[in-house]
Amino acid sequence: MRYHAAKPQWTGRRLNRDLFNALGVLVLPLSHIISDADLHKLAMHGIELTEYDLDPLSEEKAALRELEASVSTLRHIFQGIRHSGHIPIADIQNEIMPVMTRSMESVQVFPLLLSMRAKDDYTYRHNIAVGALSSMLGRWMGLPPGELAILSIGAVLHDVGKMAIPEHILNKNGRLTDEEYETMKLHTLYGYDMIKQCADLHHRSALIALQHHEREDGSGYPHRLSSERIDYLSKIVAVSDVFHALTSDRVYRKASPFYEILRLMFTGSLGNFDQSILLTFTRRLMNSLIGCEVELTDGTVGQVVLIPPSDPTRPLIRQGERYIDLSKEIHLQMEQIVG
């Protein structure tokens, strides 16, 4: 079975020509920005938009829209997996993985983070986001193409075992009980078994599903493995998985700012991650803030001008002629990005 992405998103796009109906009446003018109401209006006049009617998207915007559409595609694929217990690997490779590749080549990290913050369909959006983030992180870590391909598909499928978890637990609008949490943790084992059955997938992709909740100090699950026994690709996905989960809104809690989550991860408050992977991830994301204005916890506003390599979560801030080094002013930290 083939799954197809949702219809292209026209809202927010600008017309590059006047649109007339069959009677020659102007319906929408050149340079008009399309809204949802406009789509209904055009349908009433029997006008169907095409890419040729609209200003072209930048490569980055086009890739972000593909990522957004892939959430719906993955939802259909995963729902099929829930019923069959088998992964349609050809559909994943044909419909999802090319989008991952284009996102790596075209999207900067900050637009990706903003685009992929979970708004709905958390289970499916999370897998797409972790796939994209892990692919970026794998490239930053210098993985060769073969390993990068194994990482990318393993990251997209890292939570596929949740399709074997009862829906009343998976979709519960609140925190899980201890018993439900123990059931939820089984998704790592289920995912490993599902991926292992796919002859075309590398064994390390299955290990990602199994090990992405393991931690360097042996405090993770399902097997409480310590550093040297955890596959390197699983360590990359572990960082991306926790980061996206905690920077996304859930029914039972609001998302935390990404720089706050980075600080907590970097200081070990959210578990013990591979330090070289985490340092690279933190530096790259914090470097995306250079030039941005941020509000500090004392209410003052300044511009991020330098990310120190030793602790990238505490940058140098400029306020007019004054500089604040957050690595030394430990009573201060970033509160929010202005704008």
Keywords:
339 residues; EC 3.1.4.-; 8% strand; Hypothetical protein af1432; 47% helix; Molybdopterin biosynthesis moea protein, domain 2
Structural class: alpha+beta
Order of helices and strands: EEHHHHHHHHHHHHHEEEEE
Count of discrete structural domains: 3
Summarize model confidence as the mean pLDDT: 90
Question: Which strand order spans the largest sheet, edge to edge or round the barrel?
Answer: 6-5-4-3-7
CATH topology of the largest domain: Hypothetical protein af1432
Task: Please give the share of residues in helix.
Answer: 40-55%
CATH architecture type of the largest domain: Orthogonal Bundle
- Major beta sheet, specifics? 5 strands, antiparallel
CATH superfamily label of the largest domain: Hypothetical protein af1432
CATH class of the largest domain: Mainly Alpha
| Dominant shape | globular
| Strand segment tally | 7
Number of helices: 13
- The percent range for strand residues is 5-15%
Residue runs with pLDDT of under 50 for 5 or more positions: 1-7
What can you see in these coordinates?
- The protein has helices spanning 36-44, 59-84, 89-106, 109-116, 122-140, 145-156, 167-170, 178-185, 187-196, 203-211, 232-246, 258-266, 275-287; strands spanning 19-20, 26-28, 293-296, 301-306, 316-319, 322-325, 334-337.
- The protein is globular.
- It has 339 residues and is of the alpha+beta class.
- A hairpin with a 2-residue loop joins β5 and β6.
- The protein has 13 helices and seven strands.
- It has three domains: 1-56, Molybdopterin biosynthesis moea protein, domain 2; 59-285, Hypothetical protein af1432 (Orthogonal Bundle); 290-337.
- The strands form two sheets. It has a five-stranded antiparallel sheet, with no helix packed on it. A two-stranded antiparallel ribbon has the order 1-2.
- The longest helix has 26 residues, at 59-84.
